[in-house]
User: Fold these one by one.
Assistant:
Number 1:
Amino acid sequence: MTPETDAAFDAIRAEFGPDSLARVEEMLKPGREGDRHPLQKGAKWILPGLSQIAWHDPYGHPELAPLVKELETQHGAIKKELTEAWTRRRDAFSDYEHYLTRQHNWQALYLYRDGGIVPESAVTAPTAHRVLKEFAVDTRTICPLLESHFSTLLPGAAVAPHCDLWNFSINLHLAVDIPEGCSLTVAGETRSWEEGRCLLFDYSFQHEARNDGDRPRTCLLVDLWHPETTPPERLALVALITEVRRLMGEM
């Protein structure tokens, strides 16, 4: 904690009550591992009290269901625009840079990054841009610490097993273009994407992905707040992680 985070936390407590950040404070106690699943051991931060569920029902959270429904409804238009972008605007894609690695066979086209919508995505992928803005950004269900992008795994590509940094956001996948031979494994359970449908999972659990097909596999990924986090916790977590990144020279 720094004076900046202390001040931010004090302001949040003054607005929401003295106990509003109890779980965040518990998470930050020195040496605290907390009650975490063995397959969450690689995550840096585990906010206590959140359900330890690896796979979530995409329609199981009222806060997120409107986004899921609209993405699935607009799948046809989203796929058409993605295909055109991949064919005619390949320079809009870049190697995906995960916090662990950078992969040339994992391409990304960003819709949301660094806390805001990527303006160019309104031209490159207008339907996805609109849905994301109306149903995730404007509703504040997107986690501003992270991103949304089209994730394209080239044939033969694999994302090695890993845990992401924390459990207070979860990952939504819209299956945009899915060849045979693709899989996603989370907490030891392997599933396949169904084109036009969404998957939702907690990526603090160990997970991996493969494309053993003969053409690129593309999903639209959206990092969303875990629906069991509260508004004051979200404010505090943004202040905390922003300060950590500043101290690490990432901002």
Note: Residues 55-225 form a domain with the Jelly Rolls fold (CATH 2.60.120.330).
Number 2:
Amino acid sequence: MARAKARRRDARARMPLSAHLKEFRTRLILATLGVAVGAVAGWFFYTPVFEALQEPVIAAADRDGAAVSVNFAGIATALDMQIKVSLVLGVVVSAPWWLYQLWAFVGPGLKAGEKRYAFGFLGTAVPLFFAGVALAWWVYPRAVDILIGFTPELASNFLDAQLFISFAMRLVLVFGIAFVFPVVMVALTWARVVKARTWLKGWRWAVLLIFVASAVLTPTPDVVTMMFMAVPLCLLYFGAVGIGLLRERTAAKKEARLAGQTGRDIES
């Protein structure tokens, strides 16, 4: 029984390209279904989430006495906003599920004895994703406060609801997904798709891209907000490289030991 399962796992690891594409489609469909289920749950939490998103706007209006509000420009805008918020909440709520599907797609590239690392992947990726979401939620009101502060005196600032929601939801997703990428790096190194030394050789470009992406994706013009995203990502990047190097060194020692043992067996 155990040998049969091992053969099936090994056969899956040697799947041709067409089979890998089919596997990718299956995992994508399962992940999408999970997000859809989460979106249904998110639909019922739209009101408290929207009220929380509005709080910085209301606070800025009360503090400065300016005409600042979220403006619904079209007859279907409110419905469209609720759908968008529900979908993003679905992505957040179902993060453990679609992260598992990501691992299940990468997993066949690992050896049978390495499947147990799925728990390590999920146990690291899920908290990091939610940590990124939490950091985005912390940055959001400060970003809104800074941006509204550019409104000239005696002027009104009617925020387009579509742009307002897109701004908030993009911030949450970008931070969450960005914090997961280092775990994906480790998974690719573990599956021997990308060598750790390849990640290490490109560290200068990686740091540059992280800072550029942080400057573009963070909505405020101040350096502090950008650093809140860039510095943790740089630390996570180098942490992922270190884990990958340690993994490759351990694997090389193990393979050398097995090769030496095989050579002695042949001689004897």
Note: DSSP finds ten helices and two strands in the chain.
Number 3:
Amino acid sequence: MQSFTSGGQRIEVEWFAASGGSAAGGGTGTNGPAVLLLHGADGLTYAEGYRLAARTISASGYHVAFPHYLDRTQDRRVAYSRLRQDFPLWATTVRDGVSWLASQPGVEAGKLGIVGVSLGAALAFEVAASDARVKAIVDYFGPFPEGLAARQPRLPPTLILHGALDPVVPVAQAHAIERLLKQQGTPYEIRIYPGQGHGLTGTTQFDSAARVASFLGQHLGPDQA
């Protein structure tokens, strides 16, 4: 287990080294792209699911860092009564995580992305809005942070994956993000899955994984500046 410090707190990080493809150098000793994987409000409740996602991404040739950002507030899962007050602290921690990731051996600092799930996606948008080091975002059914659209941030290329029947984060949130990206001429892809709720099940999991691999290859791959 690795770690970095944010706000005086030790933030644990699970590291998944790139294990396949040529995107991360293919064992040639060259630096390669890397992503932060940000869990949702469930924290580590379903950690094995996030670890499976990390291994899948790393198998495509990307270093993956899975930070336990709730360590900043010493929580195991989100306390909804404190969500608004804690959100800026977690965003700062994710920003510190980007700095940590950029400094890791074998990581090409100019090719960093964030894969965020639900709350993790909201944090990805919040951080990328003011941190140009983030070159790509994968948004798994995340909400748009409150007030962010009004600030008209320049976001990086974004892949939006959302369930049409999501009862937790309405699909309208996905379309709001799409509108901003379209207005600004930012490259994006969107896939709304019919019949899916807050989370993807069955064959949609395989479809989304394939889309993530393709998207990251386009925006963080070896031929990208």
Note: The chain is about 35% helix and 25% strand.
Number 4:
Amino acid sequence: SDSYNLRLSDRRAKATVQYIVSKGISKERITGSGMGETQPKVACTACTEEEHAQNRRSEFLIIKK
């Protein structure tokens, strides 16, 4: 369901943040947020497994101070 996918996406985002923090990046410098199926990278109706994999992603925006 959409609500399950949103919760799953949020858990993935939090796990990604935890991983980056474990590598030495300050927790105050990073945030994470799950988008569920609201912002797919690949728009498809009958998605292949490869397309699903592309939509299960973590994206980073690096901002120079």
Note: Helices lie at 2-22, 49-55.
